[in-house]
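User: Okay, second chain of the day. Same drill as before: sequence in, structure tokens out.
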Amino acid sequence: MILYYGSVVLLILAIIAYNFKTSLLAYIQNTPVQNLENRRTGLALKECVNDNDSLAKLWRESNGTAVIFASIDVHTWDVDQRRITDIRVSTWCPSTNHESDIDSYHWQIEDNMALKNRNTVNNPNIFAFRATEVIRQTQISPTMDSVFKPLTTRFTKTIIVGHNIYRTVALLENHWKPPAAAEFLDTQRIWQFQHRRLDAVTLEKALQTSPEASYDKALFNNAGNDAQFILRLLQAQSCFPR
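Assistant: Same drill. Structure tokens below.
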């Protein structure tokens, strides 16, 4: 008797599974692929629209509000990303109108200078915009604070910018915490929204597809130079004059 009822249950489950599969296939066949893709794209682009809207709002406010943009780029050893090799910060105020008004800082971390990447290109010695300083890993927090604390005092809004900024901040989380009042903008998300794309884009490709942005291809893969180029990309994305 138990065997009989067990067989009946298995038969019922098999029928239910067959009907579900048939219904799912019919739905997929009757729903255009483009519609499914558009739904997926629409949902993902909602994640990007906030950064794009925030940038547009900051652009409008910049005439009457003291706004400073500070880009951060961090390079790590590709074998162990807890080992930071160099950090770069660049700052720019929209009230100026030339790319030379971008102020730049570049620090190499003495503890990890001997580490060489195995798979990812990193050129720590080609920083082109200022002298590179060498600091200890324990100096990361006070060094970053020495740049950001005066900004939060002087400016009404401090906007921290990066290409995949939340990953950048995560790399620093054991060494430094951003100012509590700071806002964040991600040039990668802005690029995705403006180009209606979902794929992650490198900083170099984002600059290549932004005709208004100026950069030197030979200077990529250096945290110092990359932070400068992040702000140039932001200027192009926002149509700020350079």
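The two ends are 84 Å apart (CA to CA).

User: Thanks, on to the next one.
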